[in-house]
Each structure stands twice: as C-alpha cells, then as structure tokens.
Design a protein that fits this description.
Oligomer: single chain
Strand content: 25-35%
Largest sheet: 5 strands, antiparallel
Radius of gyration: 11 Å
CATH topology: N-terminal domain of TfIIb
Distance between the termini: 24 Å
Number of strands: 5
Helix content: 25-40%
Number of domains: 1
Order of helices and strands: HEEEEEH
Length: 68
C-alpha cells in the first residue's frame, strides 16, 4: 500500500518535528533525526513513538542520502 503524497508533505516526526522519508519497501515513514521508523497500517501512519522501531545509524545515513 502507498501513502498519499499530500499527506507525506504535511506529516512530520512527532519527536523531532522534521520531515519524514517514505520507504515503500517496508511501508514505513522514517525520521532520520530521531532514528525511528513509523509503521503504516492499512494506509494509516502510526505516529506513536512506542509503535516505532529504532533504526541503525547506517539506515539513517541511507535515508538521509535519499532526502537530498
């Protein structure tokens, strides 16, 4: 499932308040500032810190390169 591009434009990380990167392969929204990956379930982003998974420094660097 994909996320609406308009929604992605307005969503920010609830922790760092920075823009998110959408990973289509894992269906997650990535916060490189908070090193968190927020799941998307049935097309709905779950923007709760307790539902997010920690991402590694290597993953964060990979997503930072995608943003630029």
């Amino acid at each position: 499932m994909s996320i609406n591009p308009n929604l992605l434009d307005i969503l920010v990380c609830p922790i760092s308040k920075t823009k998110l990167v959408y990973d289509k392969k894992t269906d997650e929204l990535i916060s490189t500032a908070a090193n968190l990956a927020f799941p998307i379930r049935d097309g709905i982003p779950i923007m709760l810190e307790e539902e997010a998974r920690q991402i590694t420094a290597e993953e964060a660097e990979h997503y930072r390169k995608l943003k630029s």
